Amino acid sequence: MTHLPEGQAPLPPCAGQIVPSFAPSVHRTPIGRSFDLVQEGELLVVFFGPMPLYHFGVDDRAGRYLAAVDLVRHHGVKVAQVARVFGMHRATLHEMAGRFDRSGVQGLLLGKGCRMPTKIRGAVERRLLELKRQGAMDGEAARRLGLSVSGVKSALRRLDWVEPEAERQPALPVEYDAQEPAVPLNGRAPGKEALSEGQVGKADAPGPVNAPHGAPLTAGEVRKASSEFTQEPAVTEPASAEVESAPLPKTASPTVDIDPLNRQGDRFMARLGLLDDAAPLFAPGLVPRGGVLLAVPVLLTSGIFEVAPKVYGSIGPAFYGLRTSILAFLLMALLRVKRAENLKEVAPAELGRVLGLDRAPEMKTLRGKLAELAARGKSLDFMRLLAHIRAKEHANDLAYLYIDGHVRVYSGQEKITKTYVMQRRLAMPGTIDYWVNDQRGQPLLVITAEANEGLSKMLLPVLAEVRGVIGDRRATVAFDRGGWNLKLFKALIKDGNWDILTYRKGSSSPVPRKSFRMHKAKIDGREVSYELSEKNVRIGGMTLRQVTVLGKNDHQTHILTSKKGVPAIEIAYRMFDRWRQENYFKYMEAEFALDALVEYGTEEADPNRMVPNPKRKAIDKELAAAKAEAAKLERDLGAAAFDNEEGKRRTMRGFKSATGATIGKPLREAREKVQEILERRQTIPKRVTVTEALDDKPTRLCTESKRLSDTFKMVAYQAETALVDLLRPHYRRTEDEGRKLIATALKSAVELSVREGELRVTLAALSSPHRTRAINSLCEELNKLNAHYPGTNLRLRYAVAGPKV
């Protein structure tokens, strides 16, 4: 919102077009990295890029102070930078910020050493009583009148002011039509009588906001109330056939607040237990990083805002409820705020404007919300339902599924099971997550291995989860050599709904060079070509197709599959396309901090889980050493027998007598030792419980919070991909630059306005005309979705400022 002193007219809004800036010859003084101060005659203007943010006269002291304070408090500009450009001392700027916090703009109008008025008489007294009758709190009345709170309280005592009984009761929610705009929680609806004492008493107990209280309002009453108290005007006729056909959200959240930048009323209602999520209210004006609102329509298509209440119900009563918390996690991921701790680098008021709140939840709050959801132990159900929705909407991408393990390395002090990390060539403490991606590389599910089991052991449990998501459709599962297991292959092929696709493991005869032929095809819009040779091979009692690819330096790569009816070139393409999953891991780690610890705590693992007995490992090592010693003596005996001179020792008896002390006796002792170790080994069980193996309670990293975090990041990545797909027809370099362009647009500043039942989001122009045109076309595609901002009836409308050249 552009803050202007009282009586000063605001600049015209710049929605849909670039506001002409001053001539290049006009002197521009930079304020930090993003703002400029421009003077033309007696007028000073603060610009954010091409957009004017504040303007004031040269002699307008309050306007100058207000702009300076707002730049520091809400836009992250350093105090020293603002003070230098605005020609004031840093101490003065700190003092003015304190005055503004206490008294608003009125405090900036006071001279040095002046005090706030304490005597309240005449018109000020009448205005105070009028505000109190309207329900204003003492602090709000003091702020509006430019008085001290103590002065207001003193005047009210002198005037014998008594709070009306009905006004002192906590506000009550009302039942409203699910297809109509929200009604304020003000205890009474327009045209209705005040609530009775019995109704008020029932409202004191914490409960869901949408619980019915009295008779529901009619549709006409709802429209009338929302035109009075909310941002939506009363609508009698649809604006167009398109708007009329667009579905409205199921509900709009109720609110008692009117000022989007002051949500004390809803915070009070949440404290009373009468609100489980604050309704979004949007203040018009410039919003840094507001471009992330581009992702809201595609986030809605994921179904996350419908699935979350079904799984978790409510985490209220709270100001930051389930919907707000989930949306905050998703927008954080898209803005590359990679973990809750990074929220310290983002102004809460800045991110709050995007959420429709006065402040966004901060680090401690979001970590608490995540811990509360994790404590319910339903993260896997949550992920399954979201995967089911995605599988239904993207059924064509499920013909091939890629499965691979990804290690999250742990570097803390807890004793965590070690696993082999391929990138570092070391065994390190960590956890293996098994990811399932579709044939485009998009994530579908992630399953955490209970004990860092290998892919060959985890493949069946993972596919059992996948089967619950995709149903009975036939699919080909592709994996690397870590899943090589002939018994597993037989089980999957016998199932009838799975085909396997993997590299051949072990040694095999090379294919003759003359057997290769060049194959070319266009798959998924790509021109591909390989030199291939195909034949059927018999392995482990199964007949499989072997497709061999001839690479550089005549290197041969053997691919095995049970899939029939598709060309060999598609088999090779799909197997090599497994690198999409590897690219996904790399991208998610770099952009979304996929491997970051969500919390530092551990939890007790299954104490009865069977693991290999560590004692057998020690005795196996001892047995191997004994066998090696026996083998060495046997070789020595054979060499001595070979070199025996028959003239000296004609018989074996003579040979044994001659070598008995040096070779024979040590060999007998070595063989006896091997036998003794084998007998001891028989008494040691191969597998024991993990508790017996560790002589302590087994621990592992907390899985619920990590799975929830992974789910949010998966949905954010899918939303980013959906935006790239919408951009593809309008931007030729989408394959190379699409994601980077979307990430830039999501971080751009926007101008927000609420008009005619719409939340209008106007993005600033990008760095070049062709990129601006591409994002403008993306906005047009998003407008066709007719999406509503979650928790409101506001339809989202997007545009780009400036001419579309």
What's this, in brief?
The protein is an alpha+beta fold. It has 28 helices and 22 strands.
Describe the structure.
With 805 residues, the chain is α+β, with helices and mostly antiparallel strands. Among the domains are: 28-109, no CATH class; 122-163, Arc Repressor Mutant, subunit A, CATH 1.10.10; 197-289 and 706-800, no CATH class. 42% of the residues lie in helices and 17% in strands. The chain contains 28 helices and 22 strands. The strands form five sheets. Strands 6, 7, 8, 9, 10, 11, 12, 13, 14 and 15 form a ten-stranded mixed sheet that branches. It has a four-stranded antiparallel sheet with strand order 1-2-3-4, covered by helices on one side. Strand 14 (542-550) and strand 15 (556-561) form a beta hairpin. It is elongated. The two termini are 29 Å apart. 35% of the residues are buried. The model is unreliable at 1-25 and 166-250 (pLDDT under 50).
Strand percentage, roughly?
15-25%
Query: Total number of β-strand segments?
Result: 22
SS element count, helices? 28
**Oligomer state of the chains in this structure:** single chain
Helix content: 40-55%
Shape: elongated
Low-confidence parts: 1-25, 166-250
Radius of gyration: 36 Å
**Distance separating the two termini:** 29 Å
Structural class: alpha+beta
The major β-sheet equals: 10 strands, mixed
Mean pLDDT: 79
